[in-house]
Amino acid sequence: MKSQFKKAFIFDLDGVIVDTAKFHFLAWKNLAESLEVSFSEEENEQLKGVSRINSLQKILEWGNKSISEDKFNSLMAQKNEEYLAFVDRMSPEDILPGVLETLTYLKENNYPIALGSASKNARHILTKVGLTSYFDHIVDGNEVSKAKPDPEVFLKGCELLGVEPEQAIVFEDSQAGIKAANTAHMLSVGIGDKAVLSEADFNFEGFTELTEDTLKTLTNFKK
Ligand SMILES: O=P(O)(O)OC[C@H]1O[C@@H](O)[C@H](O)[C@@H](O)[C@@H]1O
Ligand SMILES: [Mg+2]
């Protein structure tokens, strides 16, 4: 049965828990440049939180390129191979500052916790950094049909955690993810540049700013 008072936490992965956003950037940049499509931090911002397939579609649109289905599939595989070579070198040292402390506090205080990521590599990355056991449920790119900014990934997380969307607090580093949380009436917490994530209900540079008092403020906040 759902308790209407309980709060639950949903974490995005890339750029929130681990700094894999920089690996996605490097891999997409190499791919875009191989197609002679210019790719800067600005374009990259628009790919954060966006699925692999939609990201490649966007790059092709920006460069006004049309390619065969075979080429499309081989580029997706090539990007993922390059990305996974970076991931292979990851260890618990790659957990972003303050994340472990936040997860430990939430776990000790019995808050339900889910992962809500667009990545098909999410489980592999959580294993690499040793965080799998902190999550009651993991929803990743393999389990959703609609990519962020559609809220499907977070709604699935709520369903599995047994809470209503209004009870969920979402940590996100992408504009697409903040939009998804807002659309579903969840509390959106932007992690990163406030100017970029201006639509979030709360903003923090990183988890080191999230003290126990701040977490209590979030759990008591009514949107
Ligand atoms: O290619 P993957 O690992 O399945 O990830 C899909 C997307 O996952 C998101 O978490 C990232 O922010 C995106 O940059 C990425 O494209
Ligand atoms: Mg992210």
UniProtKB/TrEMBL annotation:
PANTHER family: 6-PHOSPHOGLUCONATE PHOSPHATASE (PTHR46193), HEXITOL PHOSPHATASE B (PTHR46193:SF18). Binds 2 magnesium ions per subunit. GO terms for biological process: carbohydrate metabolic process. Its cofactor is Mg(2+). Substrate binds at residues 12-14, 28, 47-52, 55, 79, 117-121, 148. The active site is at residues 12, 14. NCBIfam families: bPGM, HAD-SF-IA-v3, PGMB-YQAB-SF. InterPro entries: B-phosphoglucomutase_hydrolase, Beta-PGM, Beta-PGM-like, HAD-like_sf, HAD-SF_hydro_IA, HAD_2, HAD_sf, PGP-like_dom2. Belongs to the HAD-like hydrolase superfamily. CbbY/CbbZ/Gph/YieH family. It is an enzyme of class 5 (isomerase). It comes from Psychroflexus aurantiacus. Its EC number is 5.4.2.6. The keyword Isomerase applies. Mg(2+) binds at residues 12, 14, 172-173. It catalyses: beta-D-glucose 1-phosphate = beta-D-glucose 6-phosphate. This is Beta-phosphoglucomutase. Keywords: Carbohydrate metabolism, Isomerase, Magnesium, Metal-binding, Phosphoprotein. GO terms for molecular function: beta-phosphoglucomutase activity; magnesium ion binding.
